[in-house]
Amino acid sequence: MIALPTAALLSHLRRGTFDSADLTLLEQTSAKQLVEELRSAYRLTFQERQIGKKWEVSVARSFRAELKFPNSPNAILASCQLVPAYLDCVMLSVEADVLTGISRMTRLTAWPVSKPEPGLALKSGPGFKLDLTPDGWSIKHLPRRIVKLSEPFLRQRGWRFDHLSHFIPTP
Fold first, then answer.
1. Domain boundaries along the sequence of the chain
2. How far apart are CA 149 and CA 115, in angstroms?
3. Tens of pLDDT, residues 118-142
4. Nearest-CA neighbor of 158 among 88, 92, 63, 101?
5. pTM higher than 0.90, yes or no?
6. 25-40 burial by CB neighbour count: b if 16+ within 10 A, else e?
7. Cα 70 to Cα 114: distance, rounded to the nearest angstrom
8. What is the pLDDT of residues 71-121, one digit of tens each?
9. What radius of gyration, in Å, describes the C-alpha atoms of the chain?
10. Three-state helix/strand/coil letters over 109-147
């Protein structure tokens, strides 16, 4: 289970607020320890990569299938797709075992696209991001948005496709 201080930090991040206790926790906890603690409750790792001393990890508390109804204004019949949705997501950026960023979003949904090139469209729910800058920690709102990313780009960023095979055929 997640320790009480980490749970409080995530709760504050969900609301877009943080206080000095949150900052103290972030500065005193090793990033590796924080990731291990998060993985105890956020069991699905959907993105992870390490480049030199930089480490990025994205986890979700749960994962489910949802129906997506593509916009087809000229279609006679409505069609739908079964797509994966990651719920309650946390994304971490680490440099040399020091946490440099932590984001939390309500959801992340993925579906296949063929244009401009084959890949996935990722639709994020709202959330907040806490970043370590030279002037200290800053928080910013993450609005809902949709991005289209190629499969090679996602693989390069450490996206894990193994759990998607149940929903989206991959080559």
1. 4-166
2. 10
3. 889 999 999 999 999 898 888 999 9
4. 92
5. no
6. bbeebebeebbebbee
7. 13
8. 767 777 777 778 889 999 999 999 998 899 999 999 999 888 888 888 899
9. 17
10. EEEEECCCCCEEEEEECCEEEEEEECCEEEEEEECCEEE
